[in-house]
Amino acid sequence: MKVFPVTKLLLKNWMRNKSGVFFTVLFPIMLILIFGSIFGQSKMSYTVYIQNKDAFGRNPTKLAKEFIDALNNTTILKIKKLDVLTNPKDFVKDHLFRNCRVIVIPRGFQDNILRGKEVDVEVIGRKGDPYFPLVKEAVETVACNFNLRISRSGEVINVSSSFTTEKKVTTIDYYVPSILAAFIMVNGVISVASSTAEFRSKGVMKKVMTAPVSKYEWIAGNLLQQVLLAFLLTLAMIGVAKAAFNFNRFLDCYSILFIAVGAVAFCALGLLIGNAVGDVEAASGMANAIAFPMMFLSGAFWPVELMPKELQFIAKIMPLYYLQNGLRIAMVYGKFNSTSFAGILVSAIVFVAAAVSVTKWRVD
Amino acid sequence: MDKIIEVKNLVKKYGDFTAVNGLTFDVYRGETFSIIGPNGSGKTTTVEILECIRAPTSGEVKVLGYDVVKEDKKIKKRIGVLPQDFDAFDRLTVEENVRVIGEMYDSSLEVRELLEEFGLWEVRKRKYGKLSGGQKRKVGICMAIVNDPEIVFLDEPTTGLDPKAREECWSVLEKLKDSGKTIFLTSHYMEEVERLGDRVSILYRGKMLDVGDIEDLVSRYGGGIKIVIKAKDLKYIKAMVDTLGEMSVDNGRVGAGRREGVTFIVESKEEALELASKLIDIGVEFEIKEPSLEDVFLHLAEGVINERGELV
Ligand SMILES: Nc1ncnc2c1ncn2[C@@H]1O[C@H](COP(=O)(O)OP(=O)(O)OP(=O)(O)O)[C@@H](O)[C@H]1O
Ligand SMILES: [Mg+2]
Known about the structure:
The complex is a heterodimer of chains A (364) and B (312).
Chain A: H1 3-15, H2 18-39, E1 46-52, E2 55-56, E3 59-60, H3 62-73, E4 77-81, H4 88-94, E5 101-105, H5 109-114, E6 122-124, H6 132-153, H7 171-202, H8 204-210, H9 215-245, H10 253-276, H11 280-297, H12 309-316, H13 319-333, H14 338-358
Parallel strand pairs in A: 1-4, 1-5
Antiparallel strand pairs in A: 2-3, 5-6
Helix pairs in contact in A: 1-9, 2-7, 2-9, 7-9, 7-10, 7-11, 7-13, 9-10, 10-11, 10-13, 10-14, 13-14
Chain B: E1 3-14, E2 17-28, E3 32-36, H1 43-50, E4 58-63, E5 66-67, H2 72-76, E6 79-82, H3 94-102, H4 111-117, H5 133-145, E7 151-155, H6 163-178, E8 182-187, H7 190-196, E9 199-204, E10 207-213, H8 214-221, E11 225-230, H9 234-247, E12 253-254, E13 261-266, H10 269-281, E14 286-289, H11 293-301
Parallel strand pairs in B: 3-8, 3-9, 6-7, 7-8
Antiparallel strand pairs in B: 1-2, 1-4, 4-5, 9-10, 11-13, 11-14, 12-13
Bound molecules: adenosine-5'-triphosphate and magnesium ion.
């Protein structure tokens, strides 16, 4: 197994390249510091529409109002009103921005609660909305607390005052995983593509090819190097975010999984470009042309939900969308988003297979 | 003798273009075998097929007794390579460059000894990118032999170097030759091949014009010893040719009178000395030129290779 010598060689070569080190680690950290200082204190929230059918004319019943206030107090949800005439399912479907959710408070909400009967609060969302579970969870928490208060004392007046959620999501929570994901991609695609093309043009690639190192070992060595660099970047970013902005998320096994698979996918894409395009300049040009649009379209700097429909579609065919989405859900909420994981895993498999097939250890 | 490389009817086509056209030759253990040929004659193509990094179109090629297509792993462990126009990792130091390649093999030479041997130990901490051309090439040679290979392939090891650096490189390669390794060298410098090579093959447009001991080839195709008389006055030359024509030695032919003088070509050293003494007697300035590989090449390929590797 000659994987480790390859990785060692690549790491050494990387370490000596000052601009490489700058763009791999320092630049993303600078971005975090800039974004954090501009937006760091503002809180992250998800827009939710409430359709309240429990009202006298324009005024909601007392309990319905308290329920809505309680939802509002969670801070994770940003509440908007939806009139009762709209069909909530159609509203979700037709809404220009995807991934909006509607909470329907049924008619007779107050009466039924007071009589001790069950009421159904419906949360409607779009299939595949990665934040839907979070929204639903928030609503469930609110409902659960509501129920507790009512059954314990029969007193329903004071419900709202004790409400908070543990998860206050700030902008920095959004940006750390997003920028991390974006730079795992940039490092893989741009630096691997240009170094591969450079090695090929200088003859060091030939030198490695004549050594008893197989192309699989060479590729694996590259992948391992990028995985290690991705974790180095992760630790540096978390450290800086912690020191500067009290960022309090840690790496759990889901985030580790996303980071590793993401680094593999984008390193393989870099290898693919570096091997398929002969010329050094052309290879790095092409890598840039792929990496930059992907970075801006995949929700690394602003949520995909805020983009027009067409762009959202484009975002969702980009592997980076799945990495940054999955990584954010893992890092911030500690949850495993299987759609995102499937997206990045499939990308990794496809890119590795393509990189293997374009890497020629014996030329024609 | 032990055949270390066996090549039979090797053909390499790039699309419709035949770059290597039916080569057959053997290389024996311990010798320095050179391929000399102008640009585009197929040297690199041939070497890379032997190094197992280029696929042959047809023919049978064995290195160390193994087939280059099917048993490349076994071959790669035991050969060392300096690719053409090789440039190592610019940002790594001399020592690191040699070490990282050494680590790709199961066993490697003591790097310190190797660098000391090549006079590179003093610059071991210097970045490869900051070295002179000659030093770079020496590092490349170190990287080619760090695994203590049985065969060393050197593809144009001194091309692009200034004469001083080339000279330094040659003395390094002579040491390598003396260590008993089999060396496979390609070049377009006649001087390099004459100095380092035991046997040489002359490659031209993908065909091997001949192969053999350098001395054999020179005596076969070199065309005798030349005695060149330098004179500017054509009338004077004519008169002299007339006189010498009568007193000329047996077998001595008067070569084509070029503008710069007259060339006599004789077959043996004795004849040359005889003619020389006559010329001294009549007080004529002259120069003796022994036949060289260049003459062999001129004879076979009808041209000479210039400094840039072009056939002219
Ligand atoms: N990958 C390739 N595709 C097509 N043609 C090629 C390829 N590689 C080499 N050739 C052609 O094959 C011929 C032989 O090339 P090769 O590099 O083997 O020559 P060489 O003797 O090493 O020349 P030089 O002294 O310039 O290094 C040349 O005409 C070259 O243009
Ligand atoms: Mg060549």
